[in-house]
Amino acid sequence: MTDSPAIPDRASIRRLESLSPFELRERLLALGSDEQRRVAKPLLNAGRGNPDFLTAAPREAFFQLGLFAVHDARAAGQWSAELVAQPPASGIAGRLDDWLTARDGEPGIAFLRQVVAWITAQGWNVDDVVYEFVDGVLGAHYPDPPAMLTHCATIAARYLGSIMGDGFPDAADLDVFATEGGTAAMRYSFDTLFINALLRPGDKVAIMTPVFTPYLDIAALPGFDLEVVQIAADATFADGTHSWQFSAQQLDKLRDPSIKALVCINPTNPPSVRLDDAAVERIADVVREDNPGLIVITDDVYGTFVEGFRSLSAVVPRNTILVYSFSKYFGATGWRLGVITTTRDTVLDDALRALPDTEKERLQQRYSSLTEDAASLTFAQRLVADSRDVALNHTAGLSQPQQVQLALFALFDLLDTERTYRAAAQALIARRLDALLDGLGITLDPDPLRAGYYIELDFMAYAEAHYDAGFAAFLRTNYEPTDILFRLAAQTEIVALNGSGFDGPPWSIRLSLANLDENDYRAIGIGIRHVAEEYLAEWKANAPRP
Asked: Does 169 map to a domain?
């Protein structure tokens, strides 16, 4: 039998620690794959946030709707077997009803009937909405309006209103822009802030950490060069373990009016806990009392995985750019479905109106192909135009089929009034966390703020709390903080990410609880415990005799 793959030496590990955790993961995957081939065991990659679950009914409805759309197009006229007409809007709801009746009992049909009933209950013109969906699923036109199809936008806003907590604006008070996932939403937001001089190179931007690494990287990009003020999750429980919450002292950094923006993921990534009510209210107080122009960019993709969630967009809506992705909750990372929302009465527009005349003249030139009065363009309108470098504004927008699937996902959750799916998703994540902790041989106190989509384990904090101080000193003297990740990959075919790459504690490990089954997480826990015991044995073997 051959030995396990060689773990890089300390100097090599130190160099690799400078990489993004997602780039470091590729090195760990290579080590793990070597060991996997040696022992013919599956590689357990807990570094991926892509869920292994998905929502069935809205997908079934999407494909059934697509079949109806093509059927209705053929019925509208054909010039050859495959050259068919576009279906007419008039009477389309009745034709859909006939088609659904003929297919009662097939997957997705009952849900489509629920959708039509909901549309009717809103008092909307049912033909208009069904046609928007049918034309959308066919993908026969550019999106119009470019930001988002009218009814799809309202449905998305209603869904957000159902999950973002008390105080979230009504759908009629929101601008909604459908984007290619949360990644594009974040990029578009930063681009338009810089293009319109609402952020400038060298400005101070606060980032709540630990945080998804690309948000740190964006701030440091040449051309952005933002000065990052870290708002660290420094709060602890009574036993000294991390609560991953933010002390008043940390949040009060935001009272400095030279801080132009706050970047937040809520619930957090990787600790995966929602901001407690005190933190949410303190940030609202900061905006009211000290920093009324603060731009809040909040990414709330994990909000549905924890009860009692309240977004910053619900407490400071005029200040907030809300980024939301449908990828995690609906198991739809490959669909690339996201939205940016802002209120129609926003501090961003106030700031645009207050720009110096020289900036307004520059922006008039930029947007001159759209309007003779660029100053009248809202931040939301500029977002859409900037996403296509203005010149291609007329072809902006997420593809129509994607928008229809997004709307069906949103409607599925709105119609699930008993929250059956939400409870099942949360329970699945909770069982996986329990299995991991069982393998580790540790317990965590219940935390109602824990979403649990990820977990961040601080190995050094555990060592300091449970062993003689000499053990922690031994680790720091002899090993790099990410050594444990290389041992896991090389010896146990387990891939995890370094929490330090997310601006978390140096010796922390970030695990996704979304993409493996319970037995796998139990095995991961056992593997981490095995490596920890290996360190402990080395320390004991080298400790001076009394």
From this structure: yes
* C-alpha–C-alpha distance, residues 274 and 308, integer Å: 9
As for how many domains the chain has, the answer is 3
- In 291-397, where do the E strands start and end? 295-299, 320-325, 337-343
The pLDDT value given to residue 11: 75
Same domain, 488 and 518: yes
Any idea which residue has 């107080």 for tokens? Answer: 285
Could you tell me if residue 339 is inside a domain? yes
pLDDT bin (cut points 50, 70, 90) of residue 34 is low
Q: Which of 70-79, 144-153, 215-224, 316-325 has the lowest mean pLDDT?
A: 215-224
Give dist(CA 420, CA 248) in Å, integer.
36
CA distance 170 to 152: 15
Condensed to tens digits (0 to 9), the pLDDT of residues 382-396 reads 999 999 999 999 999
* 108-130 tens-digit pLDDT: 999 999 999 999 999 999 999 99
H helix or E strand, kind and range, residue 134: helix 126-138
CB 174 within 8 A of CB 344: yes
d(CA 328, CA 349): 31
Please name which of 115, 121, 106 lies closest in space to residue 134, comparing C-alpha atoms.
115
Residue 281, C-beta contacts closer than 8 angstroms, at least 6 positions apart: 315
Same domain, 494 and 462: yes
| pLDDT for position 219 | 79
User: Regarding beta strands 454-458 and 227-232, do their DSSP bridges make them parallel or antiparallel, or are they unpaired?
Assistant: unpaired
Position 528 scores a pLDDT of 93
Per the CB < 8 A criterion, the answer to whether 509 and 485 are in contact is: yes
Are β-strands 454-458 and 259-265 bridged in parallel, bridged antiparallel, or unpaired?
unpaired
Residue 245 in any domain: the answer is yes
Verify that 358 and 463 share a domain, yes or no. Answer: no
286 & 339 share domain: yes
- Residue 134 confidence (pLDDT) above 80: yes
CATH at residue 113: 1.10.20.110
Q: How deeply is 65 buried, as exposed, middle or buried, from its count of CB atoms within 10 A (0-12, 13-18, 19+)?
A: buried
Q: Mean pLDDT across the stretch 159-186? A: 97
Look at residue 25 and tell me whether its pLDDT is greater than 80.
Answer: no
Amino acid making up residue 429: I
